[in-house]
Amino acid sequence: MIQTNQIPNLKGLLKKVNILYVEDDENIRGELTSLLKNFVGEVFTAYDGQNGYEVFTQNSSKIDLILSDINMPRLTGIEMMQNIRKISNVPVIFATAYSDSAFLTEAIKIKVYDYIIKPINIRNLLTILNELAYSLYQESLIKTQSLDLQRYKDVIDANNIVLKIDTSGNIQYANKNFVEISGYSEEEITTLNLIDVTHQENKGYIQNIIENINLNASWQGNIKSKTKFDDEYIVECYALPNTTEDGEIIGAIIVQKDITTQVNQKREIQAALMKAKSKVYLEGKETITELNAIISDQSKQISELSSLLQQTELDKSKLITLYNRTQLETKALKNELTELRNQPKPTDFQAASLLKLNKENVELKNTIKKLEVEKAKMTKDLQKDIFREKVTLEVMVDDLEHELAECKQKLEMLNDKDLFEETIEAYKQKAKNDDKKLKLLEAKVLRLCDKETAKQIFTDDRKEERTENQE
């Protein structure tokens, strides 16, 4: 009878194991098969050794483990496994009702994983199956990792230069990519040292690689290499220590990637950038010269405008003086005329004097009208000149600020951009100061003329603006 002692909880790994169970006793075979199906994947059964061999050969790709009795008709369990061992190393567990030296000797020869004594202890059997399932999982994992490593190796080998060197730098292996790029034959490669395929400029790197490898450390960097025909090429190099299972350093695995094209492209881009930078610098220098000339012209125009304004102030002062004198003369004539009219009867002499005074008064009024017209014309012309000059200067200031902003943008790449920005800011401030000077000149005009003249020269809004500035 099968003993059904306490059954341990099995891991999910056991469910992935398929078993061939060979037992000539139908009752024991049926009972154990039903129980095993609760713990393992698929259970194949056979009723004797010959049948077990036939079932295995038909399903060998699916069967992970054989659980078999030893003493069976046609073929014993030992004989069955002797035949199976010719085609497979599948693990086997024997169930036996006896134990002798002959069985142990044969079991060793056919590499039996384990054996259990009948009647079968289910707890013991499941423990063995669980250990075996874990062992099979580990073997499967190792095979998978080996396949992954092989795939990684194939990918690296296909896309890179791969070298294997000893602790002195002698090349022991090189892949076909190295053969193609270096021009050396496979026979010549094994006679070379890593320093032989390195450019004179970078031979010091080889000593660094060997020193790092002997310290069990990796090395990474770019190296300029040379071919058999002294052609140059640049590689991105990774050197990893190569050790035995005992940890003994026997050399290094070197993986190199040809980056000659990328390096050359980078150099071309840098050269183009330097050329563009020089061009921008020269253009900026020319622009600064032009701006200096424009600013100089602007300063000259402002100076001329200041002189014109001063002359206008003098003319205006003369005009106001003449106007005041005329007003006084007119007032005196009016007084004389009033006195004459107040006399009872003017004499002939007085009448002639009165006529003369009236005539002079008319002439004086005409002169005053002409002076007022001339004053209005001069005021209007002065207003137009000042407004036109201010608009011109404001447009020039806006244009200069715009050009200065563009120059500042173009010259940001220059090494002396801080100094240049200070110069631009100074020009900008100077333009603002020039505009401020113009406003001060207008304010000065306001202070020098009377309210009537100011109304004729400036609009109410502009007057308010300049009055605020004056305050």
TL;DR?
The protein has 471 residues and is an alpha/beta fold.
Could you explain how this protein is built, in words?
With 471 residues, the chain is of the alpha/beta class. It folds into three domains: 12-151, Response regulator (Rossmann fold, 3-Layer(aba) Sandwich); 160-258, PAS domain (Beta-Lactamase, 2-Layer Sandwich), CATH 3.30.450.20; 266-470. Helix content is 63%, strand content 13%. It contains 13 helices and ten strands. The chain has helices spanning 26-36, 49-58, 77-84, 101-109, 122-159, 176-182, 186-189, 203-214, 260-342, 348-410, 417-448, 451-457, 460-470; strands at residues 19-22, 43-46, 65-69, 92-96, 114-117, 161-165, 171-174, 219-226, 232-243, 249-258. It has a five-stranded parallel β-sheet. A five-stranded antiparallel β-sheet has the order 7-6-10-9-8, with helices on both faces. Helix 9 (260-342) packs antiparallel against helix 10 (348-410), helix 10 (348-410) packs antiparallel against helix 11 (417-448) and helix 11 packs across helix 13 (460-470). The radius of gyration is 57 Å and the shape is elongated.
